[in-house]
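hi!! sorry for the late reply, been swamped w classes. u asked for the two structures so here they r. pasted raw, havent cleaned anything up. first the sequence of the first protein and right below it the C-alpha coordinates
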Amino acid sequence: MILLFAIGTMLLGVAAALVARALTLSRVRMAAHVQKIEAYGFSTTEMADDLPTLAARMKARVTTLAERIGRSTRGTGWRAPVTAQQLRGAGLYTITPDIFQGYRVMLTGALTTLILLDMVAGSFSLNTVLLLFVSAALTWFGPFQLVRSRAQRRMDKLDGALPELIDLLIATIEAGLGFAGSLQLVADRFDGPLGQELRLTLREQNMGLSTERALENLLARCETPSMRAFVRAVSQGESLGVSIGAMMRNLASDTRKRRRQLANEKVQKAPVKMLFPLVLMVFPALLIVLLYPAGQQLLQQLGGH
Protein backbone atom coordinates (compact mmCIF):
# COMPACT_ATOMS: atom_id res chain seq x y z
CA MET A 1 0.00 0.00 0.00
CA ILE A 2 2.77 2.44 0.96
CA LEU A 3 4.67 1.67 -2.25
CA LEU A 4 1.60 2.33 -4.38
CA PHE A 5 0.93 5.58 -2.54
CA ALA A 6 4.55 6.68 -3.09
CA ILE A 7 4.33 5.85 -6.80
CA GLY A 8 1.03 7.74 -7.11
CA THR A 9 2.46 10.78 -5.31
CA MET A 10 5.52 10.75 -7.57
CA LEU A 11 3.35 10.55 -10.70
CA LEU A 12 1.19 13.42 -9.48
CA GLY A 13 4.31 15.51 -8.84
CA VAL A 14 5.63 14.77 -12.33
CA ALA A 15 2.25 15.64 -13.86
CA ALA A 16 2.09 18.92 -11.91
CA ALA A 17 5.62 19.82 -13.03
CA LEU A 18 4.75 19.10 -16.68
CA VAL A 19 1.58 21.19 -16.46
CA ALA A 20 3.47 24.09 -14.86
CA ARG A 21 6.15 23.89 -17.54
CA ALA A 22 3.54 23.85 -20.30
CA LEU A 23 1.80 26.88 -18.82
CA THR A 24 5.01 28.91 -18.38
CA LEU A 25 6.70 27.88 -21.63
CA SER A 26 4.87 30.48 -23.68
CA ARG A 27 5.82 33.19 -21.18
CA VAL A 28 9.50 32.17 -21.37
CA ARG A 29 9.40 32.32 -25.16
CA MET A 30 7.67 35.71 -25.04
CA ALA A 31 10.36 37.04 -22.70
CA ALA A 32 13.04 35.86 -25.10
CA HIS A 33 11.32 37.64 -28.00
CA VAL A 34 11.06 40.82 -25.93
CA GLN A 35 14.79 40.68 -25.18
CA LYS A 36 15.53 40.36 -28.89
CA ILE A 37 13.31 43.37 -29.62
CA GLU A 38 15.10 45.43 -26.97
CA ALA A 39 18.42 44.45 -28.56
CA TYR A 40 17.29 46.21 -31.72
CA GLY A 41 16.62 49.43 -29.80
CA PHE A 42 12.82 49.35 -29.58
CA SER A 43 11.00 50.17 -26.34
CA THR A 44 8.93 47.31 -24.94
CA THR A 45 7.29 49.05 -21.96
CA GLU A 46 3.94 49.56 -23.68
CA MET A 47 4.11 46.06 -25.16
CA ALA A 48 4.76 44.55 -21.73
CA ASP A 49 1.71 46.32 -20.34
CA ASP A 50 -0.45 44.71 -23.02
CA LEU A 51 0.81 41.19 -22.34
CA PRO A 52 -1.69 39.06 -20.45
CA THR A 53 -0.73 38.05 -16.96
CA LEU A 54 0.16 34.50 -16.05
CA ALA A 55 -3.02 34.08 -14.03
CA ALA A 56 -5.18 35.24 -16.95
CA ARG A 57 -3.46 32.83 -19.34
CA MET A 58 -3.79 29.96 -16.89
CA LYS A 59 -7.48 30.76 -16.47
CA ALA A 60 -7.94 30.83 -20.23
CA ARG A 61 -6.17 27.48 -20.63
CA VAL A 62 -8.22 25.86 -17.87
CA THR A 63 -11.41 27.26 -19.40
CA THR A 64 -10.45 25.89 -22.81
CA LEU A 65 -9.71 22.50 -21.27
CA ALA A 66 -13.05 22.54 -19.43
CA GLU A 67 -14.87 23.41 -22.66
CA ARG A 68 -13.27 20.47 -24.47
CA ILE A 69 -14.08 18.09 -21.64
CA GLY A 70 -17.66 19.35 -21.43
CA ARG A 71 -18.17 19.02 -25.16
CA SER A 72 -16.92 15.43 -25.13
CA THR A 73 -18.96 14.37 -22.08
CA ARG A 74 -22.39 15.50 -23.17
CA GLY A 75 -25.17 13.05 -22.53
CA THR A 76 -28.75 12.59 -21.48
CA GLY A 77 -30.38 11.85 -18.17
CA TRP A 78 -28.09 12.38 -15.21
CA ARG A 79 -25.23 13.28 -17.59
CA ALA A 80 -27.19 16.09 -19.26
CA PRO A 81 -25.45 19.48 -19.10
CA VAL A 82 -26.97 22.63 -17.70
CA THR A 83 -28.90 24.53 -20.36
CA ALA A 84 -27.91 27.99 -21.55
CA GLN A 85 -31.26 29.38 -20.39
CA GLN A 86 -30.61 28.19 -16.83
CA LEU A 87 -27.17 29.78 -16.83
CA ARG A 88 -28.54 33.08 -18.13
CA GLY A 89 -31.37 32.93 -15.62
CA ALA A 90 -28.81 32.50 -12.84
CA GLY A 91 -26.89 35.55 -14.08
CA LEU A 92 -23.91 33.54 -15.41
CA TYR A 93 -23.52 35.20 -18.81
CA THR A 94 -19.83 34.40 -19.42
CA ILE A 95 -20.08 30.62 -18.92
CA THR A 96 -21.33 28.32 -21.64
CA PRO A 97 -22.98 24.95 -20.94
CA ASP A 98 -19.88 23.12 -22.21
CA ILE A 99 -17.56 25.03 -19.86
CA PHE A 100 -19.86 24.44 -16.90
CA GLN A 101 -20.10 20.74 -17.77
CA GLY A 102 -16.32 20.51 -18.02
CA TYR A 103 -15.84 22.10 -14.62
CA ARG A 104 -18.31 19.61 -13.13
CA VAL A 105 -16.37 16.69 -14.62
CA MET A 106 -13.02 18.10 -13.48
CA LEU A 107 -14.26 18.76 -9.94
CA THR A 108 -15.81 15.32 -9.60
CA GLY A 109 -12.76 13.60 -11.04
CA ALA A 110 -10.31 15.49 -8.83
CA LEU A 111 -12.21 14.82 -5.61
CA THR A 112 -12.81 11.14 -6.34
CA THR A 113 -9.15 10.72 -7.30
CA LEU A 114 -8.03 12.16 -3.97
CA ILE A 115 -10.37 9.84 -2.08
CA LEU A 116 -9.16 6.85 -4.09
CA LEU A 117 -5.55 7.74 -3.30
CA ASP A 118 -6.47 7.94 0.36
CA MET A 119 -8.10 4.51 0.08
CA VAL A 120 -4.96 3.10 -1.54
CA ALA A 121 -2.67 4.65 1.09
CA GLY A 122 -4.87 3.75 4.04
CA SER A 123 -7.15 0.93 4.93
CA PHE A 124 -10.16 -0.02 2.84
CA SER A 125 -13.38 0.53 4.78
CA LEU A 126 -17.08 0.89 4.17
CA ASN A 127 -17.05 4.49 5.40
CA THR A 128 -14.46 5.45 2.78
CA VAL A 129 -16.52 3.85 0.01
CA LEU A 130 -19.62 5.67 1.25
CA LEU A 131 -17.65 8.93 1.36
CA LEU A 132 -16.52 8.32 -2.21
CA PHE A 133 -20.07 7.92 -3.55
CA VAL A 134 -21.46 10.82 -1.50
CA SER A 135 -18.66 13.15 -2.58
CA ALA A 136 -19.09 12.19 -6.24
CA ALA A 137 -22.85 12.79 -6.03
CA LEU A 138 -22.40 16.17 -4.31
CA THR A 139 -19.77 17.45 -6.74
CA TRP A 140 -21.77 16.30 -9.75
CA PHE A 141 -25.34 17.25 -8.83
CA GLY A 142 -24.52 20.08 -6.39
CA PRO A 143 -23.49 22.73 -8.99
CA PHE A 144 -26.54 21.92 -11.11
CA GLN A 145 -28.88 22.37 -8.15
CA LEU A 146 -27.15 25.61 -7.16
CA VAL A 147 -27.57 27.05 -10.66
CA ARG A 148 -31.22 25.99 -10.84
CA SER A 149 -32.07 27.38 -7.39
CA ARG A 150 -30.26 30.64 -8.10
CA ALA A 151 -32.08 31.01 -11.41
CA GLN A 152 -35.42 30.39 -9.69
CA ARG A 153 -34.68 33.00 -7.00
CA ARG A 154 -33.66 35.56 -9.60
CA MET A 155 -36.78 34.97 -11.66
CA ASP A 156 -38.98 35.30 -8.56
CA LYS A 157 -37.32 38.62 -7.66
CA LEU A 158 -37.69 39.81 -11.25
CA ASP A 159 -41.39 38.97 -11.35
CA GLY A 160 -41.88 40.71 -8.01
CA ALA A 161 -40.32 43.96 -9.27
CA LEU A 162 -41.95 43.90 -12.71
CA PRO A 163 -45.27 45.60 -11.69
CA GLU A 164 -43.34 48.56 -10.26
CA LEU A 165 -41.43 48.85 -13.54
CA ILE A 166 -44.67 48.84 -15.49
CA ASP A 167 -46.12 51.58 -13.25
CA LEU A 168 -43.08 53.80 -13.84
CA LEU A 169 -43.22 53.15 -17.57
CA ILE A 170 -46.91 54.13 -17.62
CA ALA A 171 -46.14 57.44 -15.88
CA THR A 172 -43.28 58.32 -18.23
CA ILE A 173 -45.06 57.20 -21.41
CA GLU A 174 -48.20 59.18 -20.55
CA ALA A 175 -45.94 62.16 -19.89
CA GLY A 176 -44.89 62.09 -23.56
CA LEU A 177 -41.76 59.93 -23.71
CA GLY A 178 -41.33 56.98 -26.00
CA PHE A 179 -40.78 53.47 -24.74
CA ALA A 180 -37.02 53.48 -25.35
CA GLY A 181 -36.58 56.81 -23.55
CA SER A 182 -38.83 55.72 -20.69
CA LEU A 183 -36.92 52.47 -20.27
CA GLN A 184 -33.62 54.33 -20.21
CA LEU A 185 -34.99 56.78 -17.66
CA VAL A 186 -36.31 54.20 -15.18
CA ALA A 187 -33.66 51.49 -15.59
CA ASP A 188 -31.28 53.08 -13.06
CA ARG A 189 -33.98 53.08 -10.38
CA PHE A 190 -33.93 49.30 -10.07
CA ASP A 191 -31.37 47.07 -8.41
CA GLY A 192 -31.11 43.31 -8.34
CA PRO A 193 -31.94 40.98 -11.24
CA LEU A 194 -34.43 43.31 -12.95
CA GLY A 195 -31.98 46.22 -12.91
CA GLN A 196 -29.22 44.01 -14.32
CA GLU A 197 -31.40 42.75 -17.14
CA LEU A 198 -32.67 46.23 -18.00
CA ARG A 199 -29.16 47.68 -18.15
CA LEU A 200 -28.06 44.79 -20.34
CA THR A 201 -31.02 45.43 -22.65
CA LEU A 202 -30.13 49.13 -22.89
CA ARG A 203 -26.52 48.23 -23.63
CA GLU A 204 -27.68 46.03 -26.49
CA GLN A 205 -29.78 48.90 -27.85
CA ASN A 206 -26.81 51.25 -27.66
CA MET A 207 -24.78 48.72 -29.65
CA GLY A 208 -27.28 48.95 -32.51
CA LEU A 209 -29.96 46.37 -31.82
CA SER A 210 -33.57 47.33 -32.32
CA THR A 211 -35.95 47.58 -29.41
CA GLU A 212 -37.84 44.50 -30.53
CA ARG A 213 -34.66 42.44 -30.84
CA ALA A 214 -33.37 43.61 -27.46
CA LEU A 215 -36.67 42.67 -25.84
CA GLU A 216 -36.53 39.23 -27.48
CA ASN A 217 -33.08 38.73 -25.96
CA LEU A 218 -34.47 39.87 -22.62
CA LEU A 219 -37.23 37.28 -22.87
CA ALA A 220 -34.70 34.59 -23.83
CA ARG A 221 -32.74 35.34 -20.66
CA CYS A 222 -35.79 35.64 -18.41
CA GLU A 223 -38.42 33.17 -19.58
CA THR A 224 -41.27 33.83 -17.14
CA PRO A 225 -45.01 34.30 -17.82
CA SER A 226 -44.98 37.90 -16.59
CA MET A 227 -41.95 38.83 -18.68
CA ARG A 228 -43.46 37.09 -21.71
CA ALA A 229 -46.65 39.12 -21.37
CA PHE A 230 -44.65 42.32 -20.91
CA VAL A 231 -42.51 41.76 -24.01
CA ARG A 232 -45.54 40.71 -26.09
CA ALA A 233 -47.47 43.84 -25.09
CA VAL A 234 -44.57 46.18 -25.87
CA SER A 235 -43.82 44.46 -29.20
CA GLN A 236 -47.45 44.66 -30.30
CA GLY A 237 -47.66 48.32 -29.31
CA GLU A 238 -44.45 49.20 -31.14
CA SER A 239 -45.39 47.27 -34.28
CA LEU A 240 -48.94 48.65 -34.46
CA GLY A 241 -47.88 52.18 -33.60
CA VAL A 242 -50.52 52.64 -30.89
CA SER A 243 -50.15 54.03 -27.41
CA ILE A 244 -49.21 51.32 -24.97
CA GLY A 245 -50.34 53.21 -21.86
CA ALA A 246 -53.68 51.38 -21.59
CA MET A 247 -52.02 48.07 -22.45
CA MET A 248 -49.49 48.67 -19.69
CA ARG A 249 -52.23 49.36 -17.14
CA ASN A 250 -53.97 46.08 -17.95
CA LEU A 251 -50.61 44.31 -17.91
CA ALA A 252 -49.76 45.68 -14.46
CA SER A 253 -53.10 44.47 -13.12
CA ASP A 254 -52.67 41.02 -14.68
CA THR A 255 -49.11 40.77 -13.34
CA ARG A 256 -50.23 41.52 -9.79
CA LYS A 257 -53.06 39.00 -10.09
CA ARG A 258 -50.62 36.38 -11.35
CA ARG A 259 -48.26 37.10 -8.47
CA ARG A 260 -51.14 36.81 -5.99
CA GLN A 261 -52.18 33.49 -7.51
CA LEU A 262 -48.62 32.17 -7.23
CA ALA A 263 -48.52 33.22 -3.58
CA ASN A 264 -51.80 31.42 -2.91
CA GLU A 265 -50.48 28.35 -4.70
CA LYS A 266 -47.38 28.30 -2.49
CA VAL A 267 -49.58 28.66 0.59
CA GLN A 268 -51.67 25.67 -0.53
CA LYS A 269 -48.52 23.59 -1.03
CA ALA A 270 -47.11 24.43 2.40
CA PRO A 271 -49.06 21.76 4.37
CA VAL A 272 -47.96 19.04 1.96
CA LYS A 273 -44.32 20.11 2.24
CA MET A 274 -44.57 20.20 6.03
CA LEU A 275 -45.86 16.63 6.11
CA PHE A 276 -42.46 15.03 5.42
CA PRO A 277 -40.55 16.84 8.22
CA LEU A 278 -43.39 16.05 10.59
CA VAL A 279 -43.44 12.34 9.77
CA LEU A 280 -39.66 11.87 9.61
CA MET A 281 -38.45 14.18 12.39
CA VAL A 282 -41.18 15.43 14.71
CA PHE A 283 -43.42 12.38 15.11
CA PRO A 284 -40.62 9.89 16.00
CA ALA A 285 -39.26 12.18 18.72
CA LEU A 286 -42.79 12.85 20.00
CA LEU A 287 -43.59 9.14 20.15
CA ILE A 288 -40.36 8.44 22.01
CA VAL A 289 -41.13 11.14 24.58
CA LEU A 290 -44.71 9.92 25.08
CA LEU A 291 -44.22 6.15 24.95
CA TYR A 292 -40.81 5.69 26.55
CA PRO A 293 -41.96 6.28 30.19
CA ALA A 294 -44.92 3.93 29.76
CA GLY A 295 -42.77 1.31 28.07
CA GLN A 296 -40.06 1.53 30.73
CA GLN A 297 -42.64 1.19 33.51
CA LEU A 298 -44.21 -1.80 31.77
CA LEU A 299 -40.84 -3.52 31.45
CA GLN A 300 -40.07 -2.90 35.12
CA GLN A 301 -43.40 -4.40 36.16
CA LEU A 302 -42.89 -7.45 33.94
CA GLY A 303 -39.38 -7.88 35.27
CA GLY A 304 -40.57 -7.62 38.86
CA HIS A 305 -43.02 -10.47 38.42
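now the second protein. again sequence first, C-alpha coordinates right under
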Amino acid sequence: MEITDDGFLTPVGFFGLNQKIVQGWGNIPLSVDLPFTAAVKRDEMILVEPSGLLDQYPALEKFDGIPNSWVSHLICPVLPFGAFSLTLDSVPKIDSEFELFIRTAGALATIHFTKINYRVEQFNHKRASNGAKKLGELSTRQLLIKSLIEKGFSNPAIAEEIGYSESLVRQETMAIYSILNVSGRKELLEAKDK
Protein backbone atom coordinates (compact mmCIF):
# COMPACT_ATOMS: atom_id res chain seq x y z
CA MET A 1 0.00 0.00 0.00
CA GLU A 2 1.34 3.39 -0.98
CA ILE A 3 0.58 6.69 0.76
CA THR A 4 -0.74 9.17 -1.77
CA ASP A 5 -0.01 12.87 -1.52
CA ASP A 6 -3.60 13.57 -0.55
CA GLY A 7 -3.73 11.20 2.43
CA PHE A 8 -4.89 7.85 1.10
CA LEU A 9 -3.44 4.36 1.04
CA THR A 10 -3.72 2.74 -2.36
CA PRO A 11 -2.72 -0.80 -3.34
CA VAL A 12 0.21 -0.84 -5.74
CA GLY A 13 1.23 -4.46 -5.62
CA PHE A 14 -0.17 -7.71 -4.35
CA PHE A 15 0.75 -11.35 -4.33
CA GLY A 16 -1.56 -14.25 -3.55
CA LEU A 17 -4.76 -12.18 -3.72
CA ASN A 18 -7.19 -11.81 -6.60
CA GLN A 19 -6.27 -8.73 -8.63
CA LYS A 20 -9.87 -7.58 -9.21
CA ILE A 21 -10.72 -7.87 -5.54
CA VAL A 22 -7.72 -5.76 -4.48
CA GLN A 23 -8.53 -3.20 -7.17
CA GLY A 24 -12.02 -2.98 -5.70
CA TRP A 25 -10.57 -1.78 -2.40
CA GLY A 26 -9.61 1.48 -4.09
CA ASN A 27 -8.05 4.35 -2.19
CA ILE A 28 -8.36 3.97 1.56
CA PRO A 29 -8.46 7.22 3.59
CA LEU A 30 -5.94 7.28 6.42
CA SER A 31 -8.83 8.34 8.66
CA VAL A 32 -10.45 4.88 8.34
CA ASP A 33 -9.44 2.63 11.25
CA LEU A 34 -7.77 -0.41 9.66
CA PRO A 35 -4.57 -2.32 10.46
CA PHE A 36 -2.83 -0.70 7.45
CA THR A 37 -3.79 2.84 8.42
CA ALA A 38 -2.92 2.24 12.08
CA ALA A 39 0.56 0.96 11.13
CA VAL A 40 1.22 4.03 8.97
CA LYS A 41 -0.19 6.61 11.39
CA ARG A 42 1.66 5.17 14.39
CA ASP A 43 4.78 4.06 12.48
CA GLU A 44 4.65 0.68 14.17
CA MET A 45 4.20 -2.91 13.12
CA ILE A 46 0.70 -4.23 13.70
CA LEU A 47 0.09 -7.94 14.31
CA VAL A 48 -3.52 -9.07 14.08
CA GLU A 49 -5.15 -12.44 14.59
CA PRO A 50 -8.57 -13.57 13.33
CA SER A 51 -10.24 -13.69 16.73
CA GLY A 52 -11.69 -10.32 17.59
CA LEU A 53 -10.36 -8.72 14.40
CA LEU A 54 -13.72 -7.36 13.26
CA ASP A 55 -14.44 -6.11 16.77
CA GLN A 56 -11.18 -4.17 16.73
CA TYR A 57 -11.43 -3.04 13.07
CA PRO A 58 -15.13 -3.12 12.03
CA ALA A 59 -14.38 -1.28 8.76
CA LEU A 60 -12.75 -4.51 7.51
CA GLU A 61 -16.22 -5.95 6.86
CA LYS A 62 -16.38 -3.78 3.72
CA PHE A 63 -13.27 -5.39 2.21
CA ASP A 64 -13.88 -8.50 0.14
CA GLY A 65 -11.21 -11.08 -0.56
CA ILE A 66 -9.35 -11.10 2.74
CA PRO A 67 -7.99 -14.65 3.12
CA ASN A 68 -9.92 -16.71 5.65
CA SER A 69 -7.27 -19.34 6.40
CA TRP A 70 -4.54 -17.56 8.32
CA VAL A 71 -3.19 -17.51 11.83
CA SER A 72 -1.81 -13.96 11.90
CA HIS A 73 -1.38 -10.96 9.68
CA LEU A 74 1.61 -8.62 10.07
CA ILE A 75 1.49 -5.06 8.70
CA CYS A 76 4.74 -3.15 8.56
CA PRO A 77 5.03 0.57 7.75
CA VAL A 78 7.71 1.61 5.27
CA LEU A 79 7.65 5.36 5.67
CA PRO A 80 7.36 7.65 3.85
CA PHE A 81 6.29 5.22 1.09
CA GLY A 82 3.45 3.29 2.74
CA ALA A 83 3.18 -0.22 4.20
CA PHE A 84 3.24 -3.89 3.30
CA SER A 85 1.65 -6.93 4.87
CA LEU A 86 2.35 -10.60 5.33
CA THR A 87 -0.32 -13.24 5.87
CA LEU A 88 1.21 -15.90 8.10
CA ASP A 89 0.41 -19.45 9.18
CA SER A 90 1.85 -18.85 12.67
CA VAL A 91 2.15 -16.05 15.22
CA PRO A 92 5.71 -14.70 15.13
CA LYS A 93 7.60 -13.64 18.23
CA ILE A 94 8.18 -9.96 17.59
CA ASP A 95 11.32 -8.75 19.25
CA SER A 96 13.62 -5.88 18.23
CA GLU A 97 15.74 -8.13 15.99
CA PHE A 98 12.71 -9.51 14.13
CA GLU A 99 11.23 -6.02 13.70
CA LEU A 100 14.53 -4.67 12.37
CA PHE A 101 14.71 -7.55 9.86
CA ILE A 102 11.12 -7.03 8.63
CA ARG A 103 11.51 -3.23 8.37
CA THR A 104 14.83 -3.61 6.52
CA ALA A 105 13.37 -6.11 4.07
CA GLY A 106 10.42 -3.79 3.44
CA ALA A 107 12.68 -0.77 2.93
CA LEU A 108 14.90 -2.69 0.49
CA ALA A 109 11.89 -3.92 -1.48
CA THR A 110 10.46 -0.40 -1.59
CA ILE A 111 13.74 1.05 -2.85
CA HIS A 112 13.96 -1.64 -5.51
CA PHE A 113 10.37 -1.28 -6.71
CA THR A 114 10.54 2.52 -6.64
CA LYS A 115 13.77 2.61 -8.65
CA ILE A 116 12.36 0.40 -11.38
CA ASN A 117 8.94 2.09 -11.13
CA TYR A 118 7.39 -1.33 -10.56
CA ARG A 119 3.68 -1.72 -10.15
CA VAL A 120 1.84 -5.01 -10.37
CA GLU A 121 -1.15 -3.01 -11.57
CA GLN A 122 -1.75 0.69 -11.96
CA PHE A 123 -5.11 1.51 -10.44
CA ASN A 124 -7.35 3.73 -12.56
CA HIS A 125 -8.86 5.37 -9.49
CA LYS A 126 -5.48 6.50 -8.20
CA ARG A 127 -5.62 10.26 -7.98
CA ALA A 128 -3.98 12.29 -10.74
CA SER A 129 -2.04 14.36 -8.21
CA ASN A 130 0.07 11.31 -7.44
CA GLY A 131 1.73 11.23 -10.84
CA ALA A 132 5.29 12.24 -11.51
CA LYS A 133 6.12 15.72 -10.37
CA LYS A 134 8.74 18.11 -11.63
CA LEU A 135 12.15 17.97 -10.02
CA GLY A 136 12.24 20.45 -7.14
CA GLU A 137 8.46 20.61 -6.76
CA LEU A 138 6.83 19.86 -3.40
CA SER A 139 4.07 17.26 -3.20
CA THR A 140 0.63 18.19 -1.87
CA ARG A 141 1.48 16.68 1.52
CA GLN A 142 4.82 18.52 1.62
CA LEU A 143 3.09 21.82 0.80
CA LEU A 144 0.68 21.22 3.69
CA ILE A 145 3.52 20.43 6.09
CA LYS A 146 5.49 23.47 4.87
CA SER A 147 2.50 25.73 5.49
CA LEU A 148 2.15 24.39 9.04
CA ILE A 149 5.87 24.91 9.67
CA GLU A 150 5.44 28.50 8.48
CA LYS A 151 2.58 28.91 10.98
CA GLY A 152 4.94 27.86 13.78
CA PHE A 153 3.79 24.25 14.27
CA SER A 154 6.33 21.79 15.70
CA ASN A 155 6.70 18.33 14.11
CA PRO A 156 4.59 16.65 16.85
CA ALA A 157 1.88 19.31 16.40
CA ILE A 158 1.95 18.82 12.61
CA ALA A 159 1.63 15.05 13.06
CA GLU A 160 -1.37 15.51 15.32
CA GLU A 161 -2.95 18.09 13.00
CA ILE A 162 -2.76 15.99 9.81
CA GLY A 163 -3.02 12.50 11.30
CA TYR A 164 0.39 11.12 10.29
CA SER A 165 3.14 9.72 12.48
CA GLU A 166 5.76 12.09 13.79
CA SER A 167 8.36 9.98 11.98
CA LEU A 168 6.67 10.57 8.62
CA VAL A 169 6.40 14.31 9.31
CA ARG A 170 10.10 14.40 10.22
CA GLN A 171 11.03 12.57 6.98
CA GLU A 172 8.84 14.85 4.89
CA THR A 173 10.30 17.92 6.63
CA MET A 174 13.80 16.76 5.70
CA ALA A 175 12.64 16.21 2.11
CA ILE A 176 11.17 19.73 2.03
CA TYR A 177 14.46 21.23 3.22
CA SER A 178 16.33 19.27 0.57
CA ILE A 179 13.97 20.23 -2.26
CA LEU A 180 14.00 23.90 -1.26
CA ASN A 181 17.76 23.80 -0.65
CA VAL A 182 17.54 25.20 2.87
CA SER A 183 19.47 23.99 5.91
CA GLY A 184 16.52 23.77 8.27
CA ARG A 185 13.43 25.32 9.81
CA LYS A 186 15.11 28.64 10.63
CA GLU A 187 16.32 29.17 7.04
CA LEU A 188 12.90 28.10 5.68
CA LEU A 189 11.17 30.70 7.87
CA GLU A 190 13.72 33.38 6.93
CA ALA A 191 13.15 32.64 3.22
CA LYS A 192 9.38 33.00 3.77
CA ASP A 193 9.83 36.46 5.31
CA LYS A 194 11.88 37.74 2.35
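hope this helps!! also noticed smth abt the second:
The longest helix spans residues 96-115.
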